[in-house]
Amino acid sequence: MSTAANSPSLADDGVPGPEQDPHIWLEEARAPEALEWVTKENQRTIAALAGDARFEQLKAEALTILDSNDRIPFVSFRPDGLYNFWQDKQNPRGLVRRTSLESYRTEEPEWEIVLDVDKLAAQEEREWVYKGSTCLPPALRHCMIALSDGGKDATVLREFDMHTKSFVEGGFELEESQGGIQWLDHDTLLVSRNFSEELMTESEYPYTTRIWKRGQSIDDAQEIFRGEKTDVSAGAYLLRDNEATIHARVASRGLSFHERAYYVWKNDEWVELDLPRKAGPYGIVDGHLLFSTDVDWETTDGTFPADSLVAVDLEEWKADPNGARKVLVWAPGDRQTRESSAITGNSLFVGLLDNVRGRVLRFDFEDGRWTSTTVDLPDNASVSIAASSDETDQIMYSVADFLTPSTLYYSDGSDAPEVIKTSPAYFVPEGMEVEQHEAISKDGARIPYFIVKPKGMVLDGTTATLLTGYGGFQVSRLPTYLGTTGKLWLENGGAYVLGNMRGGGEFGPNWHQTAIRENKQRTWDDFIAIAEDMVARGFTSPEHLGIQGGSQGGLLVGTAFTQRPDLFNAAIVQIPLFDMLRYHLIGRGASWIGEYGDPRIPEQRAWIEGYSPYQKIVEGVEYPAPFLWASTADDRTHPAHARKGAAKLKALGQPYYYYEEMTGGHSGGVDNEQRAQLLALQYVYLMQRLMGESTSGED
Questions:
Q1: DSSP characters for 611-642?
Q2: Coiled coil where (predicted)?
Q3: Strand order in the sheet with 81-86
Q4: How many Å apart are CA 388 and CA 409, to the nearest integer?
C-alpha cells in the first residue's frame, strides 16, 4: 500500500479516507458531479469503440440472438398453467405470461399475457424492472410482485391477482427496500424488510420480521423475530411441505455470508437448532426434513461428510428438534458436488457435478430407507433442473454444452425424460472443438479449465483468446452454450477459455473454503496459472490474451492485471469489486466479509492489502488498457468500484476505457438493446486489443 495510505491521518479503524483517496467522491452514485464524470467517460468510450466499423454488426448480431423468438421460453409450473417471463424487441421490459402444457408442447404456444411490464412502466412513468413474485400456496393466485426502479436489488412489493391479471385494489403494498415476504394465509404476511435505518444491518439488509395483517399499518405489525444488527441479515420464515402445509416457523441469522444460526418456534420461544454454522434445512420430502451441510457434521448418529444430505423424520423432529435421529441420504464421491435441487410431489431431484459434468439423481424414501436412481439424461454436458411442480412429479431439465444449444427435457415422473424444446443454433460450431486441461497453481494444486478453439489450431501463440472465470462464493462456472460469445467471438477466429479456480463450487464446499479470507490469493494464483499454462502450450501469448469477469469475477480480473500486467493485453472488468480496503462501506460490501475478511481488523487488512486492485494500481507500471464498466443502479457492488479504478488509471496517465449504464442494476442492461450494446462494446474492445487496431481510426 502507498505511504499515504499508511499515514497517521487514516481513520481510527485503518480504512483510507478522503485524505488518502482523492476519488472517494465517486462513491456517491447519483451525485451531480459524479454523473457528469460518468457522462464524459461514456462519451469518450463510445467514440473509441462504437466508432469502430465492426461495432454495428456485432451489436446487430447480439440483438438478433437476444430478441430471437425461437429461443426456449423457460417456464415454471403453477396450478393454472406454465408461467414464463419474456423479453424481446416489442417487449423490452418484458411480459409475464402463461400457457398450458399441451400448448407449450407445440412449436408456437398460445400465450396469455398476465402482466405487461412495459405498459405498467409507461402508465406509472417509472423505470420498472420485473424481479419476480412470491405467491400464496397452493393455488398461487395471490402474489406479491417485486418491481425494481431501474434494476436495483431493492424492490417495491405489490399484491397482484393472477386470475384477474391486475393489482389488488387496497391490497398489500410495501415501499422500496431489501428483504422479502412469505404468505402465512390470504390475509397475513411474514415481512422481513428495512423498516427503518435502525433496523438495517451494516450490510443494509433487514434483521427483523413482523406478522402483517390485511388492513393493518405495517408500523403496527407485530415483530416476531429479531436478529442482531451485526448480522449480515436475519429473518423468520415458514417451513412448508409440497402440499402447502405449514409444519413450523423457522428463523435464521446470517452470522457471515457463509454462516447461519437457525431457530425453530417451539413452546412459545425460539429454540436454536444444534447445527454447524454451515448447515441448514434443505426441504421436506416423503415425511422427512432434509438438511445440507458444507462442513463435516459430527452427531451422536455419526459424522456426515461435507456436502452431504441428511434426513430426520419430520414428526420426530417437530417433537424434539435437536434430538431426532439423523440418517445419511447422500454423500459426494471424489470430485462430486451438489449443484441444484428440486422437490416435487413425491421425490427429491438433485443435480450433481461430476468433474464439472452434470447429472441428476432422484431420491425417494421406500421400505424404510433412502434410494436413488440416475435420471436418464445425456452425458458430458451441463445439466440443470429448469422447472418442477410442487403438486406432481412433473419436472424439466435443461441440457447444453459450449457448442450445443440448450435442449429442454420433460418428464411427468413416470417415464424417462423426453425432449420438449430445442433452442436454435446461434453460431456455426463446425470447425470448433472443446478440450479440458489442468494447470498447476503456485502451491501445486491442479486447476482444471476448458478451452473452446478451432480444430487443428496452430500452437504458435497467435490465437486471440478470451479467458474468463469467477472463483468465489462457492459458485460454479459450467460448460453452457456460448450463444453470443460463439457468434461474436468464436466465429471471428477467437478462442474461449473457462477456468474453474478454487473459491468456486465446482468440486464442492472444500473447493470454495480453501480459497477464502486469508487464502483468497489462491484464487488469483489459480487464474494466473491457467493463463501461464495456456501460453506454455502455445494456445495463445500475452499479446493475444484477454481476460473478462463480473462482480467477484471483476475482482478476479482486477487482481490478475495488477499482479501480472505482463501476461495480458486486454482486461474487461465488469460490475466489479475493486477497492477492497473500503468495500465494506460501498454498496452491500459488508455482507461479504465472510469471503474476504474485514479491512478494519489489522490482521485481515493485511490479507486484503496484498491484492486489492485499486491500491495495486501504481505509477510506473504499464497495464493492459483495461475496460471497466458498471451500472449506476447497481446497489449491490456499486459503480464506485469501477469508477474509482478508472479515475486512478486516468490520474496516472494510463490508457483505459470506462462505461456506465444508467439503469440495469447488478446484471447490466435492463433490456436487450442495452445488453446488445454492452456486448458489442466489449467485443470491439477485445478485437482492437487482441486481433487488430480500430478500423475507424479512433483512439
A1: T-HHHH--TT------EEEEETT--SS-THHH
A2: none
A3: 76-78, 81-86, 95-99, 112-116
A4: 12
- Is 542 in the same domain as 632? yes
- The answer to whether residue 411 sits within a structural domain is yes
How far apart CA 97 and CA 115 sit, in angstroms, is: 7
Cα separation values, 671 from 150, 156, 426, Å? 11, 19, 19
Residue 543 C-beta-side C-alpha neighbours within 13 Å: 8
Reduced to 3 states, what is the DSSP secondary structure of residue 94?
A: coil
Q: Per the domain annotation, does 161 fall within a domain?
A: no
Task: Please state, in angstroms and as integers, the Cα–Cα distance from residue 107 to each residue in 71, 85, 104, 122, 583, following that order.
Answer: 11, 18, 8, 32, 48
* CA distance linking residue 365 with residue 369, whole number of Å: 5
What is the Cα–Cα distance from 401 to 423, expressed in whole angstroms? Answer: 12
Q: Give me the CATH number covering residue 338.
A: 2.40.128
Cα 601–Cα 604–Cα 608 angle in degrees, nearest 5? 120
Q: How many domains is the chain partitioned into structurally?
A: 2
Give the separation between CA 120 and CA 127, rounded to whole angstroms: 10
Q: Are residues 399 and 473 in the same domain?
A: no
Catalytic positions are 551, 666
**Pair 500, 609 in one domain:** yes
Q: How far apart are CA 358 and CA 349, in angstroms?
A: 13
For residue 310, the one-letter residue type is: V
Cα(129)–Cα(608) distance, rounded to whole angstroms?
35
Amino acid identity for residue 680 in this structure: A
Query: Domain ends where: 396, 423, 450?
Result: 423
Instruction: Please write the tens of the pLDDT for every residue from 296-349.
Output: 999 999 999 999 999 999 999 999 999 999 999 999 998 899 998 999 999 999
Please, what sign has the CA dihedral across residues 345, 346, 348, 351? negative
C-alpha cell at 131: 424481479
Cα(297)–Cα(276) distance, rounded to whole angstroms? 7
- The torsion angles phi and psi of 537, rounded to 5 degrees, stand at -80, -10
Does residue 130 lie within any of the structural domains? no
Rounded CA-CA distance 660/655 in Å is 17
Length of the chain: 699
Dihedral in degrees, nearest 10, Cα atoms 23, 24, 27, 28:
-100
The rounded distance, in Å, linking the Cα atoms of 128 and 633 is 12
Grid coordinates belonging to 297: 457434521
Contact (Cβ atoms closer than 8 angstroms) between residue 223 and residue 206: no
DSSP for 346-367, written as a single string: S-EEEEEEETTEEEEEEEEEET
CB 282 within 8 A of CB 297: no
CA–CA dist 610, 233 (Å, integer)? 29
Which among 334, 309, 277, 255 has a CA at the least distance from the CA of 511? 334
Is 123 in a helix, a strand, or coil? Answer: helix
Angle in degrees, CA 104, 110, 116, rounded to 5: 110
Distance of CA 461 to the CA centre of its chain: 33
Per-residue pLDDT at 635: 84
Q: Is 46 helix (H, G, I), strand (E, B) or coil?
A: helix
Judging by beta carbons within 10 Å of its beta carbon (0-12, 13-18, 19+), is residue 53 exposed, middle or buried?
exposed
pLDDT tens sequence across 167-194: 999 999 999 999 999 999 999 999 999 9
CA distance 191 to 619: 51
- Confirm if 501 and 523 have CB atoms less than 8 A apart: yes
User: Which residue in 189, 284, 282 sits closest to 235, CA to CA?
Assistant: 189
Reported as a single tens digit per residue, the pLDDT across 246-263 is 999 999 999 999 999 999
Helix H or strand E segment including 102: helix 101-104
